[in-house]
Design a protein that fits this description.
Layout: E1 8-13, E2 16-21, H1 32-45, E3 53-58, E4 62-64, H2 69-72, H3 87-92, E5 98-102, E6 105-107, H4 109-116, E7 119-122, E8 127-129, H5 132-135, H6 143-151, H7 153-162, E9 165-167, H8 168-173, E10 179-180, H9 186-198, H10 202-216, H11 220-237, H12 241-259
Parallel strand pairs: 2-3, 3-5, 4-6, 5-7, 6-8, 7-10
Antiparallel strand pairs: 1-2, 8-9
Helix pairs in contact: 6-7, 10-11
Amino acid sequence: MSQPDDIVLIETDNRVTTVTFNRPEALNALSVRLRNRAAEVFSALASDADTEVIILTGAGRAFTVGLDLKELGGEADAATSVTGTEITDAIARVGKPVIGAINGFAITGGFELALMCDFLIASPDAKFADTHARVGVVPGWGLSQRLPRLIGINRAKELSLTGNYLDAETACAWGLVNRVVPADELLATCNALARDIVTTEPVTRGEIRRIMDTGWGTTLEEGLDIEIRANRTHSRTQVTPKGLVARRKDIQARGRDQSG
């Protein structure tokens, strides 16, 4: 359990770990210290047997407003330099589903981190913006490639070339976030979805996630080939008649519960 004054809060319950950026006074701006600590946390979670799903969120009014511009501009001293793994690399390599609980501002670098999550749930207070063109920096954490694939290139260009803000409801209508829920229900909703994920078969879940991510960066034809090769390997090494029978009963029971 983290201490309230830790720069990154970590809480694990029933195989779901919530990671919270905790610089609310700075809108969770990604100082070098915060980036280093978050990278350490995600690197550790990659091999943590007690964690199967991760929820990423921010304390206060922001998810994160991106890199600490005061620090970058020399107005505030950087306590340290980036050491070891960068936060983006650590998230990319965690190998487990990451749900973004977007509680407030997700700006520029913060927008990029949100796009690295497997999917996003937002509160009505969530606001997204890409201000790279206004700051004078070309994106380097994937925004220029991930955003057009999610919402379409014309909408992505509108956001990135204007630097305008995108509200939560429009983000949902555009397919950037899966749903918008009341602020006081955000973490509970994410936790419920995370627990649903935990109940799935771990090896199969991980392989489905892997082939989706791999196929997303290829053509449809290549993606279908990735899927069929994964299907054959998994069927040969992981699927047994006994396991299928047991899971079929669970699926039927779950279907009755959710349909009733």
